[in-house]
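The records we work with from here on pair a chain with its fold. Each token is a code from a learned vocabulary of local backbone shapes. A record is reproduced here so that you can trace the correspondence yourselves:

_____
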Amino acid sequence: MKHFLASFWLLGTFLHVCTQRAIPASEFQLEGDYLIGGLFDVHDDTGSVKPFTLSNYRRFQMIRFSVEQVNNSTDLLPNISVGYDIFDHCSDTQNFPGVLKFISANGSIQPWSDRQSVPSKVIAVVGPFTSTQSLTVAPLFMVNLVPMVNYATSSSVFSNKAKYPSFLRTLPSNSDMIDVIVRILQKFNWRWVAFLNSDDDYGNDGLDLFTQKIKDTEICLPYSKGLSDSTNYSQTFKQIEAQQINVIIVFAPENSVEPLIESAVLLNVTNKVWIAGDAWALNKKLPKMKGIKNIGTVLGVAEPVVTIPGFSDFLHSSKAQLHCKYAEQDKFCNQKCNCSCMNPEDILAADPSYSFAIYSAIYAIAHALHNTLQCGADKCNSNITVYPYIVLAELRKSNFTLVNNSIQFDDNGNLKQGSYSIVFWNNSGDAQEIGFYQFNSQVHFFIDDNKIEWHTNGEVKSPYTCIKCKDIEWSEEGSTSCNLRAVEYISVTDIVAILVLVAACVFVGMTLAMSVLFSVNYNTPVVRSAGGPMCFLILGCLSLSSLSVFFHFGKPTVPLCTLRYLPFLLFYTICLACFVVRSFQIVCIFKIAAKIPKLHSWWVKYNGQWLVIAVAFVIQAIFLVIGYSCKPPSPYNETSWYADKIILSCDISLKASTASVVLLSSICALCFIFSYMGKNLPKNYNEAKAITFCLLLLILTWIIFATECMLYRGKYIQLLSALAVLSSLYSFLFWYFLPKCYIILVQPHKNTQQYFQGLIQNYTKTISQ
């Protein structure tokens, strides 16, 4: 995204020049009532512009043929012409002007404008070729829901409609291709394999999907490698030999595969089985390379070769009228056609991969336009204004048959029905079909292994039997054995546990000391304003809540897990309930008593504060009994966070404890509301302010702990939990009770009846004024 934004800013200035520059008619443009944008790799996108390949040029001619055939149809779009504007996606630095032109209207771009502003003539875009290219330009088209119908990008990330709502594709996704590869391995019982992938979005997606799909199988992946221009092929093959791997999956485009296979021939790599992805399974150059049989047997997963009627005639007729006079013209984005060296037979003989996908993409757009314009048998309603998002809506509803193939899209923009051919590179240097894979509502898979001419010494055997390590074991990448995982938990004798337990003991000692101090000074104004007898209940419950801390350490057992939060949830509820009634009483005395005297008298007459506390205690006790009875906490081994460790912890059911936590949170929220209402009470008469501050600390503490739980699952999570409990307890001890102890011991002149009455009288005069 950051590369895209930077390029957007830098290259946006060229849009005006690009759109205004006069370019003669060529194979790259065709005028029409509606335009389809094309992003095609006529030249290889390798950082520097190289001569185009025949397979790339064949795909380029396929979009031209498809549009021409649509225009020649008498019933698809009668009285409507479709044109195209194709950009050679030749390099990363020169692709944006084409994209910007597609999303512009009258030479300007307004990304935040209303969808029904001046529409662009480009109603949909076909391409680009690679997953990385698509990831780069897709956000530009997604903004205004311009349909992006892709014929080659198979990365599974584009199935995410939240990010790519207007992306559809007319080929199966990587997920389907990886499924075929896994079925091939299972068919021949190959369990020890290497996976070589291009080090880009396409290849890495394939590796991730393969790793996921073999999890519950006997297939092992002892070696994987991302291929790039700097790959040391000699070292790669040495590592494969060291692991005794005989089956190599290569999931990469042709420009990454060709140097790999050429290196395998030169380095005399022999007796391997190679499984090709659809990007190179139908490669025309490699099967005829000298010495290719020595590397072993090549099987591949490829698009079925569909004979498209009329394409051959189109090539022969168009090559007779080529605009070669423009070959010398240095047009924008390298849109040159060096066509003199080619003939139709060469183009027809090139790799046909993705040809039918392009053909399907154009026809899908045409059918969507047909429905948008409400076309009948002889004409379309040309008065309808066509916006890309309307075409997108019709594209999603596509349901038609093309050359005996059904074209429909699912909710993720993928084909509902599709197929692959399973091929074998035979002795003649051709990709011979030996099986198929079809998916719709069901999957059909078949391989006729009698057709395979094996170039390896007999049956390929896996040197190891792949077994899944037990939960208490782990294995390094490429290892042939399982090792016991290290078991981790914080014992009671651990230094951090000792420090926390000491802090808990100090807390209990402080609450006892404060209780003694308050009992000695029971009849003084400070103690009575702090709650009087309620102070002893709060201090006692805070002490009982601290019991939870003592059960956070040691090897988890059922009793230890049960008591880890039970005392805290139960007794801390009482503490918060006490502060709720204290906050309410403070507000009631100063603000409500005069306005609603009946409520105040009822509260005093029936001891409302004790009634509220009792009800909160009973309800929480019931919730805890029910929750802990339905799903009691139990020891739990955390094995997913670390490959080589087992973290001993407690499994506390979220559903079972939801009611208790919700009640505690509700009381906390109510307490915060009442205490905040009393924030402007007399100076130094600051119980409400103190309670508000304590609650803010409490909320902040548990937000931090919840965040830590999402980011970290190691053994110290129980230490963090104990610290969160202690922080919740110390906050009230330090910020509510400790200041009162300070007044009693250090400032006794403020602990007099006269001092408090003076504060109240001054406050009363202030609010009356």
Q: What stands out?
A: The chain is about 45% helix and 15% strand.
